[in-house]
Every structure is written in structure tokens, then in C-alpha cells.
Amino acid sequence: MNKPFMPQLVYFEPNALDYPLGKELKEKFEKLGTEIRFTTSHNQVRNLPGDTDAQKYRMAKSTLVVGIRKTLKFDTSKPSAEYAIPFATGCMGHCHYCYLQTTMGSKPYIRTYVNVEEILEAADHYIEERAPEITRFEAACTSDIVGIDHLTHTLKRAINHFGQTELGRLRFVTKFHYVDHLLDAEHNGHTRFRFSVNADFVIKNFEPGTSPLDKRIEAAGKVARAGYPLGFIVAPIYLHEGWEEGYRHLFERLDAELPQDARDDITFEFIQHRFTKPAKKVIEKNYPKTKLELDEEKRRYKWGKYGIGKYIYPKNEEDAIKEHVFGYTETFFPNAKIEYFT
Predict the structure, then answer these.
(1) pLDDT at position 80, please?
(2) pLDDT digits (tens, 9 = 90+) for 200-242
(3) 171 within 8 A of 80, measured Cβ to Cβ
(4) Residue 41 has what pLDDT?
(5) Strand spans (E) along the chain
(6) How confident is the model at residue 105, as a pLDDT?
(7) What is the structure's pLDDT at 1?
(8) Residue ranges of the alpha helices (H) in 33-172?
(9) What does the pLDDT average to over 155-159?
């Protein structure tokens, strides 16, 4: 995907136009000639164009709902942050393995919230409550926020906001390279900009609708030169023929792009491929031709919180993955911090 996301259909919830961002988006889409509809609630967004479930699913993925975030109570977001900050939900990418497949279920459309000031005020209250501790907010738990920020600039506002706070920190992760408008934000080192990266095999086969790896790595270089603390999520780490070489090659390319002076503050997060029974069902329905290996017999079952277990790699394969990716990190980025492996 080399063109920024542009919705084919946009819905506005009733009070969205009471906010400056709501009005601005309506004017923007009117000028572009995008089809605009009004809805009493995002839950009423039904009957999307399409004859089959697959067509309706794809249409939903290119539908934007502009609304208000009503609940300003933030979810926790371990292990990467204290709280999830809700600017958007849903994603325009078509990653076959994505956990949003089950959490978004039958509503994979993208939502953006226009009451940005209220959301940032709520974040300030959380910061106050935890003072003098640092409070971290994850902006990409339920969406790829960079993927829509060229339309909303909400993320840019948040970066500037957290840049002014003493104890607030922002973090998010993206698979898109549309970062140019964020390079001059006044982040003051308070936002960690993370990229989701993977072996070429995984991106080519399982991540349609996202930026290619070379574009993501080039964007990471720009972000590093703009002084942002940088991070990489290597996920899902997926065993395929030649995987050792595939992941080594990924690290070589990162090493070739990133400036030396950005390397003392780089983080890595490693997540092996996993799936749940409900996710497997949804994935096979939405992407019937997927080559994603979802054979429960080849995995071990790991109990999760809330009673939903996941299928992960057997212990010997997990150990091999860990040994290789930790080794590559040590070789190419000896000063980087590995935040977790799961």
C-alpha cells in the first residue's frame, strides 16, 4: 500500500459536527466527493455495499465513522504502557493474523474520535493520579493511528500535548510510512515512535494493505533523525522456510538505515505468532485463501487471562526463535533494550 488511506464511505455520528475536527473532516470529504452518510450511532452502521460477506468486510475496512469517544475511562495496556489512549479504533490494513479480527468482529470499520481535547484532559487526570511516577499511554491498541493521521492530525496534537507534560509519555506502533507531517512535532523526547517490522515472507504473504518493509525502515530513519525515541515490534515472529535468514536480513536492513546517534535508545518487543480458536474461525472466513499456518496440532496451548487460551509454538521452537532474535539484537544493536518476548 503506497497510497495513504482514503475512505470510500464516511459516516458522521450526531454530535461529531459540534467539534472543530468533525466540521473540518466533513468539509474535507465533501471537497473530495466522498460519499457521506449520517447515523444515530456507529452501532447502526449496517447494510454496507457488497453482495457477499467478503465484499462487505472489505467495504467496512474502507469505511470511516467520525464520532465522539463517550467513555473517558481508559483501559490498561500492559506490558507496553499503563493505559491505552483511545483516539481511533479499527484498521485499514488486511493482516491475516491480526487480533483485531476477533475484537472488532462484525464491525471492522474504522472509527476516529473528534473530542480530542476531552481525551487529552482525561489523560492529564491519569498523569496527576500517578505523580510523581511517569505514566505511559499506548495510542495503537485498537488501531493503526498513523494510518489515518494524515486526515485527522489527532496524533500530531497528542505528540505536541505530551511533549509539554512533565510526567506523561506517549507511544504507538505503525505499519505505515506516512510520517512526514509528524517530523516537526514538538515531542521533546516524550513520544516513542515504534514500527512493526517482520521478515519479508510474512509481510508479503500476510500483511496486505500495509506499507512495504523498505518504506517502513526508511520512515524509521526519518523518525530517528527527527529525534524521536525509536522502537520496533517484531511481530508476529512466524516460522517459515528460511526464517532464521529472513529475520537476520531484517536486522541487517535496520542496521543499514538507522543513524548511529539514535541507537542508544532503541527498544525491541518480540511476539511469537499465536492464535485463538475464535480468531482462527474469523481469519478463515475473512481470508479463505490464506497460507497462514493455523494447525492446533503443531502448537502448544497456553492459558490466557479471561479464560481464553492461545496456541503458541512448542517450547523447542519458541527457544530457537528467542535465541535467534536476541542474538541478532545483540549483534546489530548491542545498546538496545529488549522490553519483552512473549
Answers:
(1) 79
(2) 999 999 999 999 999 999 999 999 999 999 999 999 999 999 9
(3) yes
(4) 78
(5) 9-12, 35-38, 63-67, 76-77, 81-84, 88-89, 110-113, 135-138, 168-174, 191-197, 230-237, 266-272, 300-302, 310-312, 337-341
(6) 63
(7) 54
(8) 53-61, 100-104, 116-130, 146-152, 154-164
(9) 98
Per-residue cell: 327? 542474538
* Least confident span in 17-26, 54-63, 158-167: 54-63
Bond from prior residue into 208 cis (ω within 30 degrees of 0): no
257, 199, 312, 286: CA torsion to nearest 10: 120
Q: How many CA atoms lie within 13 A of 296 on its CB side?
A: 10
Got the DSSP string for 204-251?
HHH-TTS--HHHHHHHHHHHHHTT--EEEEEEEE---TTHHHHHHHHH
> CA 106, CA 101: separation in Å to the nearest integer?
9
pLDDT per position as a tens digit, 237-281: 999 999 999 999 999 999 999 999 999 999 999 999 999 998 898
Q: Are 193 and 172 in contact (CB under 8 A)?
A: yes
Q: Walk me through the domains of the chain, giving residue ranges and CATH numbers.
A: 9-341 (3.80.30.30)
* Residues 82, 127 contacting (CB under 8 angstroms): no
Give the list of residues 6+ apart from residue 11 with CB closer than 8 angstroms, or none: 36, 37, 38, 39, 42, 45, 63, 64, 65, 66
Are the beta carbons of 127 and 165 closer than 8 angstroms?
yes
Give per-residue burial for 194-211: e unless 16+ CB within 10 Å, then b.
Answer: bbbbbbbbbbeebbebbb
Task: Please name the residue that has the C-alpha cell 495503537.
Answer: 140
Q: At residue 10, does pLDDT exceed 60?
A: yes
Vertex 162: Cα angle to 158 and 166 (nearest 5): 170
Cell 526463535 belongs to 321
CA–CA distances in Å: residue 184 to residues 120, 136, 144, 194, 254:
20, 22, 20, 17, 23
